[in-house]
Amino acid sequence: MYMDFATKQEIYLCSNTGCKHNTPDCPAVFVMDEFPICTSGIFSYGNKIYVLSKGMDNEGAVTQDFYDLDGQLAETEASQAALYEMDTDGTNRHKVYSFDVGLTVEDTVLGNSEGLYFVTKKLSESTAEDSRSVTTSSGKTLLFWDADTKSAKEICKLDFDDGITRKIMGCLDNALVLSGVDYGKELTTDDYTMSDDDWNDMYKNSTEVISTLDLSNQKLSEKYSIDNQTLHSMAVVDNTLYVSYKDTGEVKAVNLENGEEKLLCSFTQNYIMNKLGDILCCQTWDASDDHTFYFVNTKTGEIQNSPLVNKALGWNLEFKAESGSKILVIYDYEYTPLGDDSYDITQYRYALIEKSDLYAGNGIYEPIKMIGKGC
Questions:
Q1: For a tag site, which of 200, 209, 212, 327 has the least CB within 10 Å?
Q2: Are the CB atoms for 202 and 228 separated by under 8 Å?
């Protein structure tokens, strides 16, 4: 289903008259065997809709070993990921690319006018001394899929033999912004399975490293590093890294091209949770009754605290999409109390709201007429 912002309705991705939307030939139906639930992602690119069908990326997971009926360690293998393309009305769905068997595809997808970028890797399991298994990756690679030829090619490796596992956190004109934690060594299987206290001690003695990777020459350049003794949060907007520090309340802006650093603003509730265009969406660091957002304008440093929260339970709003001057939010629930401060959410209520009203705390919502549960 999709949400039509013009008519403010949730609509099945199907225009077949009389269709009950419960058979595989319906454009709105995605069969679980072909599109694993919770791990496959849908997105728009150009004038098409794409679905990345993929299995779970459980890199870093620590699990108890399971054995089959013959007493052998049960092995798991990544399902073959694939990219599907369809028209905006859901018709003409077809597979346009199959990733190599055994590769796991990360969730992040980037694009330019020519095609899409994906990160692939090989996952493997090793057993620690306490018989638990640790999932690690190797051969992490940046892949480019050409939208015209429907073919893919390797751009570069994303393993740099320095013991740092990196994730994409943003991009510049022709470069990726990567973040990773430097523990001063390559982690072993037993490191992953150490006690929580020992892990926290090791983490506090590590450093978070922000680098850029120039795609034209594959040059990796370190741009910023932060001691993990200090609680912080980060986001990339345009060519700038924004870093907030809990202890000082500072929000700093670091130009990723020339390294220039400046203070943007200071306030207590500066935990960066999200971003909407050039606005940082911040909340309090500590578990409290304050579920409101503090919106920071990255151009001016102005801070606006919006009192808007979920109407039903007072939880924070959930931002789902942007369209021009409006934001799609989950602003209300229907729910059943289960006791012990837990709830069964039976209906997620969506609405559009003008960005200016959201930031100013004006609850002028344009509700979406829902068909399903909304999640």
A1: 200
A2: no
* Residues 6 or more apart whose Cβ sits within 8 Å of residue 247: 230, 231
Encode pLDDT of 39-60 as tens digits. 999 999 999 999 999 999 988 8
Domain edges within the chain: 162-228
Taking the C-alpha atoms of residue 231 and residue 246, their distance in angstroms, rounded to an integer, is: 6
Phi and psi angles of residue 358, each rounded to the nearest 5 degrees, phi first: -60, -50
Which contiguous run of DSSP H or E holds residue 213? strand 207-214
67, β-bridge pairs: 73
**CA atoms of 220 and 314, how far apart (whole Å):** 44
Instruction: Say which amino acid occupies 277.
Output: G
AA letter at 227: D
Q: How far apart are CA 306 and CA 164, in angstroms?
A: 38
The pLDDT assigned to 77 comes to 60
Which residue in 337, 268, 265 sits closest to 300, CA to CA? Answer: 265
Contact 104, 97 (CB under 8 A): no
Distance (Å, whole) CA 235 – CA 220? 19
Calculate the dihedral angle through the C-alpha atoms of 322, 327, 332, 334, rounding to the nearest 10 degrees.
-30
Q: 72 burial class (0-12, 13-18, 19+ CB within 10 angstroms)? A: exposed
Buried b (16+ CB within 10 A) or exposed e, 325-342: ebbbbbbbbeeeeeeeee
CB atoms within 10 A of CB 101: 10
- In one-letter notation, the amino acid at residue 26 is C
Instruction: Specify the DSSP class assigned to residue 192.
Output: H
Which tokens go with 315? 């939880």
Cβ within 8 Å of residue 266, ≥6 positions away: 248, 249, 250, 251
Number of residues written out for the chain = 375
Q: How far is it, in rounded angstroms, from Cα 39 to Cα 32?
A: 11
347, 339 Cβ separation under 8 angstroms: no
The predicted-structure confidence for 313-354, as pLDDT tens digits, reads as follows 999 999 999 999 999 999 999 999 998 889 999 999 999 999
Query: Rounded CA gap, 274 and 7, in Å?
Result: 27
pTM above 0.70, yes or no: yes
